[in-house]
Amino acid sequence: MKAEMAGYQCTECASIPNTSWNSTRTGKTNSAARWISAALARCYAVSVTYSTGSSPIFSVARIISLPILPRSFYARPTVEVARALLGKILVHCESTNAGENEHIAAGRIVETEAYLGTVDPAAHAYRGMTPRTRVLFGPAGHAYVYLIYGMHYCLNVSCEKEGSAGCVLLRAIEPVTEIAAPSGSGPGRLTRALGITLKHNGGDVTRGPITIRETAGTIFEAGLAEPFKIGVSPRIGIAKAKDLPLRFFIAGNAHVSRGG
Length: 260
Fold this sequence. Notes:
By secondary structure, the protein is an alpha+beta fold. It has a single domain, classed as 3-methyladenine DNA Glycosylase, Chain A (Roll). Helices cover about 15% and strands about 25% of the residues. It has helices spanning about 10-15, 30-40, 60-65, 70-75, 80-85, 185-195, 220-225; strands at about 5, 10, 90-95, 100-115, 145-150, 150-160, 165-175, 210-215, 230-235, 245-250. The longest helix has 10 residues, at about 30-40. The radius of gyration is 18 Å and the shape is globular. The chain starts with a strand and ends in a 10-residue tail after the last strand.
């Protein structure tokens, strides 16, 4: 398949196959593959302008000056959000001593995975709303944090219109401040590096302690000014719908978890 828009051909989208699978619930061919193809066909390939090399360490003042992504950024198809988040800055701002001091840890997002809610057998929301997944069915732009293997936290961001339950798993960051772990490569290491735990589940990422910030047109462009290519692959570590090309990463970036 080839995707074109205003004369622009998206080489990343062109490499993605039309994939389908049979739903165990309905016995019918799932429409998610067609949805993915349509979403990618609308994609502009997100030719953002940031280096694939190591990011410099930035001051807290510079991090705070970056504009926070609005809710409208997340209230659109999950695949588009997963691609567009690459290159953005994930920030955790933790207040201490009754708010008098702040500790900030941040990293540039270099790897994501899209989960398509009730049409995606690999998604937590596939079987509908539960107390655990309620946040995914609410307004876009909220954190969905869960624990895996009894030891690793994973951070997702809710997408789509309310009730659709799409979300993006943030898989890896490239540190731009000092972090609390040696690496942010992999979803468990990412949350450990930024100090994100279950207490952040349900938080509003447009105004809470965890935010995602824009870099285009900001001071970050001075040090991160080379375009990157978006790599695409199947998602990692899942047993269902495992062949769908819903993992996106900055190709060649050393902080991508693996296979990048």
